[in-house]
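I have been asked to look over a protein record a colleague put together. What it holds is a sequence and that sequence's fold in token form. Please read both lines and tell me whether the tokens look consistent with the sequence. I do not need a full report, just your reasoning and any doubts. This is what I was given:
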Amino acid sequence: MTTTTTRIAIVTGAARGIGAGVSKRLAADGVAVAVLDLDEAACQAAVAEIEDAGGRAIAVGADVADEEAVKASVEKVVAELGEPTILVNNAGVIRDNLLFKMSTADWDTVMSVHLRGAFLMTRAVQRYMTEAGWGRIVNLSSTSALGNRGQANYAAAKAGIQGFTKTLAIELGKYGVTANAIAPGFIETEMIMATAERMGMTFEDFKAYAVREIPVGRGGRPADIAHAVSFFTSEDAGYVSGQVLYVAGGPKA
């Protein structure tokens, strides 16, 4: 990093997949990272990997949709690492189904984790950013924000994330805080593997089907998303805000 100040980051949904990849990349960039997920014990592997590489990290367990849990988790980060000025809202779940089969609970669960969770985490952390006069917020959207069969809840939530991001950029810009969104396409994670299994397909067949439509001819990896997060959270990205970057191997919007 180009500053002598160690930045403190919180990455949600960070026990595995994209979140773990982002946490490790930020640590490699010199950032101290709070690896946050629903199950604190599940975060220990990512924390250990960061520490083994010479980085600094802690595991934090919290339900991002729970207001009190969010407050307590941020207080823990402040006490154990310092005041956070980088936030990556990555926590998410899927409850896919066609609209006429989708339960109200499935709708509410997805909205709560993605939208309420991003709202609660950002509201809790923004005070440290505005006080510091510097901050970086990165929200994970998805190509599904453009519409995707069987994902009315997820698509709506991810589209909402984009509007939320742009509003944060407008409100917080004068305090030196940027807000951007990343919309991944097909990324090879455990969540995608579970989707393939639910559809009765092997992961390799599912991936081959998806890759046929990807111009660069391969699936994405968590490191691809982590690289984009690294840019958005860097010292030199202060004039980039309110943007949605589709990391999908080809044009989406």
About this structure: The CA atoms of residues 64 and 117 lie 5 Å apart.
